[in-house]
Amino acid sequence: MMEIKPKIYWVGIKDWELRRFHGEEYSTHRGSTYNSYLIKDKKIALVDTVWTPFHEGFIQQLDREIGLKNINLIVINHTEQDHAGSLLYLMEKIPNVPIYCTKNGAAMIKGHFHKDWNFNIVKTGDSVELGDYKLVFVEMPMLHWPDSMATYVAGANVLLSNDAFGQHYAAPQLYNDQVDQGELFQEAIKYYANILTPFSDLVKRKLKEVKELNITIDMIAPSHGIIWRDNPMQIVEKYDLWASGYHEGTVAILYDTMWGATKKMALAIAKGLENKGIGVKVFNVGRMDKNDVITEIFKAKGIIMGSSTINKGILSDTASILEMIKGLRFRDKIGSAFGSYGWSGESPKIIEQRLAEAGFDMIMDPIKMKYDPTPEDLVDCETFGEQFAVKMKEIFS
Ligand SMILES: Cc1cc2nc3c(=O)[nH]c(=O)nc-3n(C[C@H](O)[C@H](O)[C@H](O)COP(=O)(O)O)c2cc1C
């Protein structure tokens, strides 16, 4: 239990060992934290809980520090198991305590726990007086579930933002100014790219709405990772940027190969892009963490994706990335496709079609080479890279 502002305590859990989240869908190279907050004002409020496997230690800590019976209300900003999982066990001890949540939140708590507890449905602007502080609720539907909301602690100027502005990042320290900035921002952008990209329009609208409220925010305390206390608005500004067709002006070449032919093509295309002054990163998607690939796609302006043909189709790791791309609905990105083949050569066309369906502007016809590319083939690949670079520059100008 650590005091983050007078009378406001972090009562979360650091999960150092977590390496996979959302089943196997999200890699967590640096673990994660489940941040729960306790406000010990005249009334005692608990905001969010922790993931189910950690419920025992979490509840014991709360009981030891304040006595469970002294909790006057619980706020559930979001009902996903990593934040609300311990609620079931907590409510066994204090079954009548009021739970403040959105209308969707109450429905989803019932969906998860099949219990009809004492729900207090709140909307944006509703509030609860705690004594010196007041909790003010801000609905954030689809950021990133229909139930999501944030809780603002008026008087302390703390925004308990739940999943927004969070990162899967376990660190010895609690605050943004105490940790490695490279690690912190890598985890923050990875979180945005992999979880929030489909909701960028909503993010922009919500940020505008919050700015118009004209509230002072001295601290943003999300439900995963570190707390933003040093210039907390810097992460809000980043979200504004990331939600606005963000890119770093580079090209990501993503390839998959069985015997190395498509890799040779990838490197030749990269050379062509570099010849024309475009920054390029090359990744073997079969060997790379998929969420890191998604983060790199998020950062790039252009995506050139290659796979050799297998059984008239594409290699499975490429297919998996394309499925993720489809759901994430990237915007304002350009692309093309390539690949080696033996006799029928379907893969580049399949990639082209799937990227186009996912909203990419395919600015060049795909290129394919039979079996291992000859030196002449590689010159053609290099020229392909140069032409892509020229078109990309035209789009920028
Ligand atoms: C199991 C297997 C299935 C393949 N199926 C096809 C196919 O359906 N059509 C085709 O054009 N080539 C097919 N190929 C040939 C490869 O696409 C070809 O060898 C290519 O050069 C491999 O490129 P890579 O080294 O980048 O994987 C197949 C190869 C293997 C090993």
From TrEMBL:
Family: In the N-terminal section; belongs to the zinc metallo-hydrolase group 3 family.
Occurrences of domain Flavodoxin-like (ranges): 251-389
Source organism superkingdom: Bacteria
Gene: norV
InterPro entries attached to this UniProt entry: Flavodoxin/NO_synth (IPR008254), Flavoprotein-like_sf (IPR029039), Metallo-B-lactamas (IPR001279), ODP_dom (IPR045761), RibonucZ/Hydroxyglut_hydro (IPR036866), Rubredoxin-O_OxRdtase (IPR016440)
CDD domains: flavodiiron_proteins_MBL-fold (cd07709)
Pfam families recorded: Flavodoxin_1, ODP
UniProt source species: Sporotomaculum syntrophicum
Annotated protein name in UniProt: Anaerobic nitric oxide reductase flavorubredoxin
MF term (GO), any: FMN binding
